[in-house]
Amino acid sequence: MCGIVGHVACQASQRSRQVVLDGLSRLEYRGYDSAGIALARPGELDVIKAVGKLVNLREAVDSEAPADAYAGIGHTRWATHGRPIVANAHPHVSPDGRFALVHNGIIENYPELALELDRQGIFRRSETDTEIAAHHLALEYAKDGNLLAAMCRLASRLQGSFTLVGMAGDSEVVAARRNSPLVVGLGEGENFLGSDVAAFVGSTSDALELGQDTAVSITADEVTVVDFEGRPAEGKRFEV
Ligand code: GLU
Q1: Is the CB of 104 under 6 A from ligand 1?
Q2: Which residues contact 191 (CB under 8 A, 6 or more apart)?
Q3: In the beta sheet, which residues pair with residue 161?
Q4: What is the pLDDT of residue 65?
Q5: Closest Cα to residue 174, out of 151, 143, 142?
Q6: How many A from CA of 126 to the centre of ligand 1?
Q7: Binding site membership of 79 for ligand 1 (Cβ less than 6 Å)
Q8: Which of ligand 1's atoms lies nearest the C-alpha of 79?
Q9: Which residues pair with 38 in a beta bridge?
Q10: How far apart are CA 141 and CA 139, in angstroms?
């Protein structure tokens, strides 16, 4: 299980890109084979991935000169399902390009979930268990247009271990965890997510540890924690 970083800010700038790339660098110690980032601005989601060291991802990001973003998610992958190639690196994206998802862990019941996608004619571009969850997040979102509720419904269908972090726009990042860690960093006009406090240390020392089977939504100025049934839940506040 490798590294995850998420960030939402109240202004579009290069900040999300920096926070996510720097957070991934601090999580490098965990080991990984590939990495990727998604950056969101109104109506656009830029996804960039690279195999090998983070320097390759940084070069790819720099060469594409990304526009200012309001939010971003990033991942360093240690392959469990599928080879360490660009197509299998996270974030994984829904067919319409609106949803991006990163994942640490293993989704044990992915074959059944994959079969449901096959029956609906939803084409997959990778060999991973994670991409299947990305498509199901989009399907769940289509039911009520509520990203946190969609993440809760998705998480309650999954077996195995996961920290999932997803986005579907530029103002909210959602996450869920089971048997895999997830922490929130509380900032001023910005908030953070990480698989470990190293993801945001230096940006804030105010953090929230999330309990087993909880989900969270972060915007620039709000943090909402719920259980997988959508009932209010609380994290454990601590200083980094
Ligand atoms: N099972 C996922 C994959 O193989 C996530 C691996 C990880 O935790 O980095 O893509």
Answers
A1: yes
A2: 7, 8, 184, 185, 218, 219, 220, 221, 222, 223
A3: 106
A4: 64
A5: 151
A6: 12
A7: yes
A8: 4
A9: 47, 73
A10: 5
Distance CA 210, CA 234 (A): 7
Residue 66 pLDDT: 74
CB 36 within 8 A of CB 89: yes
Kindly state the helix (H) or strand (E) to which residue 12 belongs, with its residue range: strand 3-13
Answer yes or no: is the C-beta of 181 below 6 A from any ligand 1 atom: no
Q: Provide the H-helix boundaries in 167-209.
A: none
Q: In this structure, what is the dihedral angle of CA atoms 17, 67, 62, 191, given to the nearest 10 degrees? A: 0
pLDDT tens string for the chain (240 positions)? 689 999 999 999 999 999 999 999 999 999 999 999 999 999 999 999 999 999 999 999 999 867 899 999 999 999 999 999 999 999 999 999 999 999 999 999 999 999 999 999 999 999 999 999 999 999 999 999 999 999 999 999 999 999 999 999 999 999 999 999 999 999 999 999 999 999 999 999 999 999 999 999 999 999 999 999 999 999 999 999
CB 1 near ligand 1, within 6 Å? yes
Cα–Cα dist 136/164, whole Å: 12
| Cβ atoms within 10 Å, residue 100 | 28
198-218: burial string, b at 16+ Cβ within 10 Å, e else: bbbbebbebbbebeebbbbbb
Tell me the pTM.
0.97
Tokens 């949803």 appear where? 99
